[in-house]
Amino acid sequence: MLFGAAAVALGAALIFAPVTVHGIAIITGLGLISVGAGSFFRPSPAAGGPGVAPRIPSLTRLVGGALIALGALMALWPDAGAPWLAFLVGAALVVHGALALWNAITGRDGWHADARAAAAIMGAATIVLGVVAFSWPVLTLTVFRLGLALWLVAVGLHAVWDAVVWLRSARVGGALEVGAPVRDASSRSGARPSRLRRWARTVGAVASLAAAALLAWGSGTVLGGSPMPQPGAFYTPPADVPGAPGQLLRSEPLDSGVPEGARAWKILYTTTHPDDTPAVSSGTVLAPVEPTKRPLPLLSIAHGTTGVVAQCAPSMSAAPFSDGAGTALAEMVAQHGWLAVTSDYVGLGTRGVHPYLVGDAEARNVLDASRAVQQLDAVTTTTETVVWGHSQGGQGALWTGQIAEDYAPELTVRGVAAFAPAADLFGLAEVDKNDAAGKTVSAYIATTWARLYPDLDLKSQLTPGSQGPVEHIRSLCFNGSDVLAAILRGSQIPNQIFPDRLLNGEFGDRLKAQTPVGPFPAPVLVAQGRADPLVRPEMQRDWVEARCTDGVDIDYRTFPGLSHNTLVAADSPLTPQIVQWTLDRWEGKPAAPNCDDLPASTPDAEQTPG
């Protein structure tokens, strides 16, 4: 009764007390100790039934002792890390559930058949909950906080009830002395529990098993992501690929996700890797519905992170034009008569390794897409262009402006707009190394750069416990329903992916080399949300200040309350601003850089008193 009451109290504390992760670990450990002690000292009637002296089965003692040891380890060592503690929770649940199931099947506790069935179902539910806990090593102590609390309360109440029934049975038998014969805990003078109580016990056990099974199914569904279509024949280059970059290989109409007032195509074209070796990339073209004989103003788009495997290509998505400032893009095309071309980048759609956050490679892909669209018979466009990009694409847009004059001199860049750009890749890896989204980005870098730069030997240098989750994340796209799966997988990586010694070595130097520093051939706009948890506003301001110090004129705009994605949402104040800024670049109006009076970039949370 004492240990059962303790388990109930600790379960209630998990539900209602505002405790930290360490506090959760300590309370859960004490709860396991209570449950284990209750099992260790709980007398069970012998298989012979009523009238036989109570005994404690050796298996019950063994498992009770194991629960006490696991609980003590958790309570005394809460700093061991969430994955290890979650493993202990899962192990404890599986062990306890297995014991209950074994006792119910073998009848070792002398229960009636209906009680044995309920105990077996409850044991199975506990095992399933323990198995699910292994899938969430970091989140178990928080996401499963309520589940563990309810489990402690249920087990504790069950122990208290058993104690009450045992005492009543002993009193009816006239023997409270230790070692005196007692009646079966489930029987008083041979009477079975009421039918209502037996039904309630069984229904509760079935409901627990159903809830645990639903949780297991939901975990597998969420963490597994959604099936993505594989690239078809369109993405396979012909046998006779031209050697020159920017050559259109094929095109076909695109119907999926096309904004109203626009028409679209998929394109396949030639490009190059940063070492000048030939490559093939795919992309999309968006143009007004109404054809025109005049060349359409060209908008070159560098898209944000969608993943690093072939099926993550934006052109294969159900919403290929929703990335980044999708609403502004639709307005530029449908209302202002522009043509937009977006590169998928090499390795997305087409074969090869996607050069994730390798600025020179992204820029070449964008510029070659802008060359290839000149050869599309259905439209006519200019060789003058404004470049847009969000997040990964923001870095790509800045690099596009930086190398355009040397790599594609026939194209004239009239402006570069970068929204929350990953301009400081080293800073991003350093600042976000312990956050779920940052770990997801780091996982994408780890899997692609390990193949792009084999001399770094990244795969063998990741932190312990990172390699498996990194491989899982690699196969998940960062669009649609897979975004949640990718971030949740990132949240389950126990430590930062890249150890500090790696960040401080040659790998860190190569991350720094991806910072676009200019010069830029046209006005530059950088937009940043002040509530961005991924590309931190203070980090972005540092990059802007460094460019201003180097003599680069930048129009830097910050937006209070906007995060990484809401910055480019349909209702963002940036939407009309970026449309007008782009039209101004085309009309040749003077830009308005503000290096001499940069707006605040302090994170919103730091500006709120308290």
CATH class (first level) name of the largest domain: Alpha Beta
Number of domains: 3
The CATH homologous superfamily name of the largest domain equals Alpha/Beta hydrolase fold, catalytic domain
Question: Can you give the helix content as a percent range?
Answer: 40-55%
Q: Remind me, CATH topology of the largest domain?
A: Rossmann fold
Order of helices and strands: HHHHHHHHEEEEHEHEHEHHHHHHEHEHH
Structural class: alpha/beta
Task: Report on the architecture of this protein.
This protein is 47% helix and 12% strand. It has 20 helices and 9 strands. By secondary structure, the chain is an alpha/beta fold. Residues 45-53, 175-190 and 605-610 have low confidence and may be disordered. A 9-stranded mixed β-sheet has the order 1-2-3-5-4-6-7-8-9, with helices on both faces. It has helices spanning 2-16, 21-41, 58-76, 82-106, 113-135, 140-143, 145-172, 195-224, 326-334, 359-372, 392-407, 425-431, 436-452, 467-474, 482-491, 500-503, 506-512, 537-549, 574-586, 604-607, and strands spanning 248-254, 262-272, 278-288, 296-302, 339-343, 381-390, 412-419, 524-529, 554-559. The chain folds into 3 domains: 2-175 and 192-224, no CATH class; 244-423 and 516-604, Alpha/Beta hydrolase fold, catalytic domain (Rossmann fold); 425-514. This is Secretory lipase. Pfam families: DUF308 (PF03729), LIP (PF03583).
Secondary structure elements and their pairing?
Blueprint: H1 2-16, H2 21-41, H3 58-76, H4 82-106, H5 113-135, H6 140-143, H7 145-172, H8 195-224, E1 248-254, E2 262-272, E3 278-288, E4 296-302, H9 326-334, E5 339-343, H10 359-372, E6 381-390, H11 392-407, E7 412-419, H12 425-431, H13 436-452, H14 467-474, H15 482-491, H16 500-503, H17 506-512, E8 524-529, H18 537-549, E9 554-559, H19 574-586, H20 604-607
Parallel strand pairs: 4-5, 4-6, 6-7, 7-8, 8-9
Antiparallel strand pairs: 1-2, 2-3, 3-5
Helix pairs in contact: 1-2, 1-7, 2-3, 2-4, 2-7, 3-4, 4-5, 5-8, 9-19, 10-11, 12-17, 13-14, 13-15, 14-15
